[in-house]
Design brief:
By secondary structure, the protein is mostly helical. It is built from 15 helices and 4 strands. It has 2 domains: about 1-125, no CATH class; about 195-230 and about 245-315, no CATH class. The strands form 2 sheets. Strands 1-2 form a two-stranded antiparallel sheet. Strands 3-4 form a two-stranded antiparallel ribbon.
Amino acid sequence: MSHVFCALHDQALKLSRQYLACEKALLEVLVKIEAKKVYLEQGYASLTEYSQKALGLSRDVSWNLVTIVHKSKAVPELKQAVQMGVIPLSKARQIAPHLTKENSQKFIALAQAMPREKLQEALAKECPKIPSVEERARVINATQAELSLCLPKEVMEEIRRAQDRVSESQKKWVGLAETLEQVVEFYLQHKDLKEKARRHEVRKSKAPVSVEQSRRTVRESDAAARNSEFNFRHINKPRTKIQTNGRIPIPAGIKHEVIIKNAHQCTYQDPRTQLRCDKERFLHIHHKISVAMGGTNALENLTLLCSAHHRLEHYQSSG
């Protein structure tokens, strides 16, 4: 039996060395891919998306690799430490947020000498301004989720003040969970673009405007913008104070309609899977036919794209 155990152990050692060698080689290739933006040529909006969808890497492995790739631009010593086998990817990812050119040797040495738990404690002491608790949100059951994060002391004090105000308005003691729920609801009512668009729809329903009228408004604004350069020459003001590139600002009402039409979600559709991007943050309004090619601010010429897919769209359209 000992012979069988030894054979299995030798096989595991051989495969682990191959695994580590492939990990280092993959990191080197990803650095080159990021430098040349190869993922854009392949139709992916970011290196992270490329790593997960094209290479099939897990979210955690992809996140570790991409974080090291990006940090290696400023601190090449991090990539060298991984490639030389000084520290594994997991520890490189752990120290990356704290790493600078000045402290790279010190932190890489700490990562080499300490287990992950002790390393986290050392990082918290060395960099107290950087949270030592990793943000995490997980679903507990069908109706509840658990949130773990690190906040500045001043913010926690402000949350307590908000808790007092909510408790006063409810005429009862209110916990932190309900306080955050009330604060988030209040913020979204006033700042959420989807909510603003919904209110716009309500106002519009009270004073309906025909589609032709809406299009006429867009055409009129287009015509006004085309005449702006001519009109500008007849204004007795220094030309340096006002500059125009011929681009027409999109009316607020049209922006709201774009958001409603696309449910405040990126509309990019992956040509491989036909799945729509699920991003709802950092959204940009994109002209399907560019302004340079004569595109207007008409609703049918506008769509929503997240920042990454907006960049990809312009990259592909530029040839």
